[in-house]
Every structure is written in C-alpha cells, then in structure tokens.
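A reminder from the course coordinator: this example appears on the midterm review sheet, so study it carefully.

Given structure:
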C-alpha cells in the first residue's frame, strides 16, 4: 500500500484528499457537538468551520497516509461548560466517528447510483475510485477512533456510559493511554500490530457492506 502510494500519483492524490475531507468532517463534528451542548470553546478557537486548515495537523496527516495511524488538531472543550460533563463529553466524542460513517454511507449511495448509470463516460471509473477511497478512509477513521483508549474518542464514549463510581476508575487509566496505544501499534512476530488485528475485521465488514465487491484492505 505504501509503495503504491508513492508510485501511483492518482492513488496518492485520492488518499490525500480523502483523508483531508475525513479529518475535517470528523473534527468539525466534534466542534459542532460541543457548541450545541453549551461550550463556546470551539467557536472561540475558530473550529466551527469546514476549512481544512483549522483541523489538519500536517504531521498527523502524513502519519495517516503512511501508517494508517495519525491525527488531526484535537477539538478542545471545557467540561465545566457542559450540563452533564461525562455524558455530554461522550456525545461530543461520538460525533466525530459518527460523522465519518455517515459520510461513508453517503459516498456509498453515490457510488451505487453511479455504477447503475448505463453510460460510457470516461470519468465514471475515476469518480468511482475516488468514492471508494472516501469510503475506505472514513471507515478507517471511524473504527480506529472508537477504540476505547485515550486519546481516542472511544475512551470518553465508554466513560459516558459508566456509573459515577466506575467512571472514576475508568478515567484513572487516561494517564496510561499513550503507553497502551504505542504497545498496540507495535508489530507482532507475524508483522501485523495488535491494533491492526483488532480493527481489521470490523473495517472489512463495513467495507463489504458499503462498497460493491469491496476489496480486502
């Protein structure tokens, strides 16, 4: 995949644009959710925009392109401005992955409509390939961020569903999040990392639903 990324300019361009769109939508959704729940922090920091410049971290983008692990600029919110800090934080965190899967579904619908067109237009294969990349990148971002390890969205999502007693114990694990994440990213003897083995099946399952005759990734 990495070799194809640098030898095929079309693959590189589609992957880059798709990731920029996916990250922008993801972070924008966090900002909108926080704003709707009463926290003006994202608005004051200029995050209520679909301008990618406000959301893209160049190093995180490169990491995503090369290793399927990266990040955007995290949307900051103040839990003291929320009515229910834990549950509202869970909603804000869920908004990002949810926006990605909704975008993937929208792209899937467009792809299926496009493939039903009985026309010989040279641009259809190119548009179809771009839509497949859009779907793939958004599914990847959605599933990866649902892993319940800090600083990924899944950590706060889980915290929002726990009782106050268990949530307190859960959030004590936050300080070890990066350690857990690094361990899971390290390749095993077979070459694949634990995190790749964890998210691979749900990603393939979703791609099998969203992409007609989806290739294994």
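Designed residues:
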């Amino acid at each position: 995949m990495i070799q194809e990324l640098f030898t095929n300019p079309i693959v590189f361009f589609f992957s880059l644009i798709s990731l920029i769109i996916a990250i922008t939508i993801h972070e924008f959704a966090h900002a909108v959710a926080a704003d709707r729940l009463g926290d003006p922090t994202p608005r004051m920091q200029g995050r209520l925009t679909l301008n990618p410049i406000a959301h893209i971290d160049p190093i995180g983008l490169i990491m995503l392109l090369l290793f399927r692990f990266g990040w955007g600029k995290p949307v900051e919110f103040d839990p003291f401005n929320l009515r229910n800090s834990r549950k509202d934080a869970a909603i804000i965190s869920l908004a990002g992955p949810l926006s990605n899967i909704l975008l993937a579904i929208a792209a899937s619908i467009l792809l299926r409509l496009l493939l039903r067109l009985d026309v010989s237009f040279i641009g259809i294969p190119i548009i179809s390939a771009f839509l497949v990349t859009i779907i793939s990148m958004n599914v990847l971002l959605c599933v990866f961020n649902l892993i319940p390890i800090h600083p990924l969205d899944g950590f706060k999502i889980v915290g929002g569903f726990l009782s106050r007693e268990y949530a307190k114990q859960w959030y004590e694990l936050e300080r070890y999040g990066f350690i857990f994440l690094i361990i899971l990213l390290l390749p095993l003897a077979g070459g694949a990392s634990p995190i790749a083995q964890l998210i691979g099946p749900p990603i393939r399952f979703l791609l099998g639903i969203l992409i007609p005759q989806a290739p294994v990734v």
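Residues 35 and 42 are 7 Å apart (CA to CA). Residues 2-210 form one domain.
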